[in-house]
TrEMBL record:
Residue ranges of every copy of the HTH lysR-type domain listed in the record: 4-61
Top-level lineage group: Bacteria
InterPro entries: BudR_PBP2, LysR_HTH_N, LysR_subst-bd, WH-like_DNA-bd_sf, WH_DNA-bd_sf
Record's protein name: HTH-type transcriptional regulator BenM
Tagged with keyword Magnesium: no
Family of the protein in this entry: Belongs to the LysR transcriptional regulatory family.
Keyword Repeat on entry: no
Keywords: DNA-binding, Transcription, Transcription regulation
One GO location term (cellular component): protein-DNA complex
Record-linked Pfam families: HTH_1 (PF00126), LysR_substrate (PF03466)
GO molecular function: DNA binding; DNA-binding transcription factor activity
Gene: benM_4
Amino acid sequence: MASVDLRLLRYFLAVAEESHLTKAAARLGIRQPPLSQQIRVLEQELGVTLFHRLPRGMELTESGRALLDDARNIVTLVDQAVEGVRRVSQGEAGRLTVGFTGSAAFHPFVPSVIRRFREAAPNVRLVLEESSTGELMEAVGAGRVDVAFIRGPYGLGPGVVVETVLEEPMLAAFPADHPAVKGRSRKRIALSELAEESLILYRRHSGPGLYDAIIAACGAAGFSPRVAQEAPRMLSTLSLVAAGLGVSLVPASLRRVNIEGVVYVNLAQPAELRAPLNLIWRDESLSGAARKLIDEARRQREESLA
C-alpha cells in the first residue's frame, strides 16, 4: 500500500462515492477513459478487483469496501498534514516565543502588537519571555527566542536583524524629597543640571546601547556623570531612586510606573537623548508566525506615524 500513488486513491474514492465513472470524472475534472484506466492501474497494483462494472454504474466489491475507509483516512490525514504545514508557513499555527525587556513592556506599542497578533493568529501558541537586552540578544541568536523587543542593539550576532519600531524621549526620575522637585512642580530640567547628581543606571552589561547613549549625552552636555549604582533591570533603577540613592534617566513610557516616592521630570529640548525600541529576529530561521508578528509591528508603526 505504501507504493500506491495518492492520486489513485483519490480517483478510487470519487468513483466509490459517485458509483458512476462519468459522474466521478466530472467531479474530478478529467475525462472518463483516463479515469477508467487509472482505476484498472490501482487494481493491478493491489492485485484485487475493486469494482463490479455494471451496465448503469460501478459497485464496490468486497475488496473495494475493505479499502474504502482506509483510503478515506489516508487521504484525510495527508490533507490535514498539508493544511497544517500551510497554516504554520502562513503564521496561522505553530509556536512563537516573543521576548521583551521590562521597560519595553511598559510602552503601549508592545502589548498592542501582541494583542493584535493574538487576534490575527489565535491558534498560534504564544510564549512570552521577559529578560534583559543582552540576554534576549543571545537568546535570539541561539534560536531560543523567535523575536524580541529590546531597547538598544549592541554587538548583535551574525544573522540577527534589528529594526527600530519607535523612539521616545528620556525622563529624569527623582526621589520625591529631592530639593530639585520637592514642594514644587518641576516641568523640565536640563541634562547639565544633573552634573552633580548621583546617577542610577541600568547596568551596561544588560543594556549597553542605552547606557552608552546616556554617557555620551552627558558628555555632550559638558559633564562626566557620577554613576553611583547600576541596577540589573531598568525597573530596579526606579526602586533605588525611590529609596533616595540617586537620580535616574529612563524612557518616557516608564512614567506609567507609579512607584511611590518617584517624581518624573521631562528633559529640556533640544535633547540628544532618546530611547529606541527595537525588534530583533534571526533572519535565516524566521517562521511564518514570526513574520506575521513583524508585519503587525510594522503596520502599527506606520499607523502611529500617520
